[in-house]
Amino acid sequence: MSESTTESRNDESDRAAEGEEEPLLSLKNIEVHFKQGGLLQRVLGEEAVRAVDDVSLDIYENDVIALVGESGCGKTTLGKTAIGLQRPTGGTVEFRGEDFWEVPEEERSELRRALQIIHQDPAGALNPNRTVRSTLAEPLKRWNPDMGPGERESQINELLERVGMTPAHDYATRYPHQLSGGEQQRVALGRALLMEPDIILADEAVSALDVSLRIEMMDLLLELQDFVDTSYVFISHDLANARYLAEKSDGRIGVMYLGNLVEIGSVDQILKNPQHPYTKVMLWSTPVLNPDIAEKTANQAPPVRQIDVPDPADPPSGCPFQTRCPEAREVCAQQDPDRTETEDGHEVACFRQEPDHDYWQSPPLEEPQPGEAVEGTTQN
Ligand SMILES: Nc1ncnc2c1ncn2[C@@H]1O[C@H](COP(=O)(O)OP(=O)(O)OP(=O)(O)O)[C@@H](O)[C@H]1O
Description:
- By secondary structure, the chain is α/β, with parallel strands linked by helices.
- The protein is built from 14 helices and twelve strands.
- Strands 6-7-8-3-9-10-12-11 form an eight-stranded mixed β-sheet, with helices on both faces.
- Strand 9 (about 250-255) and strand 10 (about 260-265) form a beta hairpin.
């Protein structure tokens, strides 16, 4: 990325920090609870799966947010909610100041154009019976019906060159099965870019690629960001990918746990100065990302009280991480901490951030006995 772009993004985050810039998209107290539909589940009266639970997040112009967290923590559901593919069961999605789910349907479909997705499996997202040209022509025909075939052709060729598929006329006639995984992902990205999106949700979009191709693809995402002025919500279960993308773009990393966004901040804040006990556990399990933490915790058991992951249909009371948190005290089982923000924009949902909180007077939670089930957990 050019230095000037980095500077301008820094300026943007500064403006955001000073409260001058309006967010492009504002997620407010988002809840997505999936009712379990099976007969057995209804008979047993099982609760809804709390895929996302009271998450608020602002996304700015040309922003990059990398969401990380273990499988099932709600990354995809939150990402889809941000781009209007998932209607939340609670809270609001405001896009350019308008409530996405309150605008009339035609207006909403215009907003959808500005909110695009690229998936992990590009082959599944591309029609096997369509050439690259036909795949890319389709959105142009839909959104620019006045564009003539000549102009369409030249836009498609220009785009293919931008996503590194040259000679464009050669790639344009190929079918998805005649492309490598990386090339398929480039076509999927190109199709999203033709919509001139404001936000692209890249959902594990590089996970299926070889390591070297992953870097190439992430570099391409950022290079094209300058060209189309888009923001990215980048989902990855791999913290190394999240770090690469967020570091190069001066973006943020958001850490999710059990439907909650427990910590969000710059790459340095999350990797060098993690505050939430869950973020520390994540770093413990990827020592290469923070050798200091790795050195301190070498030969130690994982920094969790117990390894069983709570069931999102029956989450623990209080803080979602309290059943595993090595720092948990009794108050953590009673109250759910809000995210608090430091002056430099590092947000953490943990009572330990608040020097005057009752937490500090609260007795430690009793250790669960071996084999003892803690409320709200599934025994693996
Ligand atoms: N349509 C659905 N109906 C019922 N439950 C769902 C649905 N979609 C997701 N879930 C559940 O919601 C929770 C969060 O899922 P989600 O896919 O958002 O997590 P994730 O962090 O993206 O996980 P992964 O990395 O495995 O995709 C999981 O328990 C999942 O089983």
